[in-house]
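The protein record passed on for reference:
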Amino acid sequence: MLKGIKEVFREFFDTYINFPSKKRLPRAVPSTEEAILPFNPAENSIEPRTLKRMIDQKKTLVLLDVRDEWEYRTVHLERALWIPLAELPRRIRELNPYVEIVVYCHRGMRSLDATYLLQQLGFKRVRSLVGGIDRWACEIDPDLPRY
């Protein structure tokens, strides 16, 4: 994971510092204070029932699945964007930092890692699904396959 973060910063440095005429800084870059704040999982999580309510209300959000390919092929939430956690630092540009993002994995650990990474990169509206797709299948959609 640390290697991926280093790659993101190296790419950022090369793009915005070495060749500033090519690009402007994205507006979502965190301030120093934001970047060093401790990560509190309780403040950056969302319960399955709350997410279900948001989906039913047709709120604008991105469901980000950070599991491996075989897991995604086994089961995934409708409309989910699939970016494995290992690829997230390289594919960060596929995400909009101004849209609410709900990250999920199997049981919620990898999604917390992804949430932390995204917040450190300036994404302010990102949360992790508590219990992952496994809890979603238990509480919201029992017809989903579980593994």
Q: What stands out?
A: The radius of gyration is 16 Å. The mean pLDDT is 86. Strands lie at 45-46, 61-65, 81-82, 100-104, 126-129. Residues 28-139 form a domain with the Oxidized Rhodanese; domain 1 fold (CATH 3.40.250.10).
